[in-house]
Amino acid sequence: MGNLVDTLAAAGTTLALYLMLGFPFLIWSGRTSYASALLEVDGQPRGWPGRAATVWLAILPLLLIAYYFVSGIGRLNVEQPDLGVATATVQKYESEWGPWLFLWLPPCVGMIIGYFVGAIIARNRKERL
After folding, report:
1. How many whole angstroms separate alpha carbon 92 and alpha carbon 74?
2. Closest by alpha carbon to 123, among 45, 23, 28, 24?
3. Residue 18: which pLDDT band, with cuts at 50, 70 and 90?
4. CA distance 69 to 56
5. What is the distance between the alpha carbons of residues 66 and 26, in angstroms, rounded to a whole number?
6. Residue 129 burial (CB < 10 Å; 0-12/13-18/19+)?
């Protein structure tokens, strides 16, 4: 029972920290895509974020997430030393970039979600105008 509680506490703490890390990027991205979508072209709001906002706030973060998972940079190599005595396993990342890209995942997810939330809110506002 203690192991389950420890595992759930660790997972909950990690989730809370990741939400806190991604939330500012969600707000920033949402405001940017909202402003871009309501930019007037020929006297009418565009209704969808522009190309630059789409590239920077949706496509590039999506490519970084895809690169992280497809390339396997975040994989751990678990080595069991054969010393004849009880020793702990050694975990090493396959690449030095693994931990850094792992830290970039929450901001990337926040930017993608914020982009779509801002675009949806701007589209609803355009329909009301």
Report:
1. 10
2. 45
3. confident
4. 20
5. 19
6. exposed
CA dihedral 11, 13, 19, 22 (to 10 degrees): -100
Q: What is the pLDDT of residues 38-71, one digit of tens each?
A: 888 777 778 889 999 999 999 999 999 888 888 7
* Alpha-carbon gap, residue 32 to 21, rounded angstroms: 18
- Assigned token pair, 11: 């997972």
pTM: 0.74
- Going by pLDDT thresholds of 50, 70 and 90, the confidence category of residue 92 is low
Contact by Cβ (8 Å): 40, 80: no
**41 Rama class: left (phi>0) / alpha (psi -120 to 50) / beta:** beta
Distance CA 19, CA 26 (A): 10
